[in-house]
Amino acid sequence: MSQYKVKKLDHPIHCTVEVPGSKSITNRALLMAALSQGECTLKGVLFSDDSRHFLLSLIALGYIIEVNEVERYVIIHGHGRDIPKKRATINVGSAGTAARFLTAMLALSDGEYTIEASEQMKKRPMLPLFEALQSMGAEFEFLEKDGHLPVNVKGAAYGGKKPQNNVSISISESTQFLSALMMTSPMLEEGIHVHITSNKTEGSYVRITAKMMEQFGCVVDHEGAEYVVPAGSGYYPQTYYIEPDVSAACYFYAAAALTGGTAIVKGVHSNSMQGDLKFIDVLKQMGCAVTEEREGICVSGPKDGEYCGVDVDMNDFSDQSMTLAAIAPFAKTTTVIKNIEHIRLQESDRIEAMVNELNNLGVDVKEGRDRIEISPANVKPGVVDTYNDHRMAMSFALIGLRVDGIIIDNYECCCKTFENYFEVLEKACAQ
């Protein structure tokens, strides 16, 4: 595994950057396009490990797809409820969205399939989704560990069967389970009624799903713990524009706070549907100024990077927990990040990863089941273990902008969602 030494900045960052398309929106759009009634053109597509696994899976299922990575577009010929190939093997890699969304798609079909995955994805939770799909008529043969990938799937409509369309599910471990059921509901003639059994009944990514389904012509009725997609729903073929990735943009906004500089991310505006936009409100609380420019949102950090710590519930935008953790040691007061227990079950145990790596850099961190408390510190140089987690690599690299001698181990894991992150960061620092 290779290492990347972050170059310490001796001046505030002042940058205007362009980030890739949103992973969350890209992979949702790929699924909806495949289930549409004709040709869809997706523009601004993210090309990364996760989205390529999704694309290759669709191709393995028989979909005709034209890909142009230079111009960042994809053309997909949708087949409505009908998956072109009735038998196939797909590999979702480490992509949680591909794993959950395509499992639901295949489980509601009339075919037989095998779903393979990376060692990392094999460990991530899937059982609530499997149980919900089994209750709808799907059959699963677990090939290694019960409730986990890899798995053989026999669709709920196999042999002319009629899938059940009333289903209950817990989304305490991942809202992707609900998004998977919602997005694949047009495969069911009678629609779907989903009852949520967990205390958590919604979230920012579920709202993205519902908004995109509406944009593709499919209405979702939601009240409390109930989600209903009416009978006869379907997706319209169209040209669809994918927003820039706000999760990626937040690293540059954080860099502005950290160095007392400014960052504009092209195409990121306050009307974005992405929940990670809430991180900008956190930066405001810390003392940053935020304005909306023609090119995109601009974040200006406090002079000399002198900002306050915060106490914040990050359940609904938890991907930014690590970004906040990276800049928290440089704050004037303690930072508390809470209600994030579910991130222990993602690409890594992200709470444990943050605590370990901050401790290794001389930062005092108190760990709870669903929270961390980070004290101001004189951060020392060191090697950061990324745990093969793209967000650990990208967020903890920010520390190196303030501290000389920060080395990111296995930095290439950022390819999961932002292949040229370190190149873009270098150019941003040189502007």
Automatic annotation (TrEMBL):
Annotated InterPro entries: Enolpyruvate_Tfrase_dom, Enolpyruvate_Tfrase_sf, EPSP_synthase, RNA3'P_cycl/enolpyr_Trfase_a/b
Entry keyword 4Fe-4S: no
Domain Enolpyruvate transferase: 12-425
Active site residues per record: D319
UniProt key word DNA damage: no
Top-level taxon in the UniProt lineage: Bacteria
GO CC, alphabetical: cytoplasm
EC number: 2.5.1.19
Enzyme class, spelled out: transferase
Any one GO molecular function term: 3-phosphoshikimate 1-carboxyvinyltransferase activity
Binding site for 3-phosphoshikimate: K23, S24, R28, S174, T175, Q176, D319, Q346
Function, as annotated: Catalyzes the transfer of the enolpyruvyl moiety of phosphoenolpyruvate (PEP) to the 5-hydroxyl of shikimate-3-phosphate (S3P) to produce enolpyruvyl shikimate-3-phosphate and inorganic phosphate.
Family: Belongs to the EPSP synthase family.
Family matches, as HAMAP family: EPSP_synth
Protein name, entry field: 3-phosphoshikimate 1-carboxyvinyltransferase
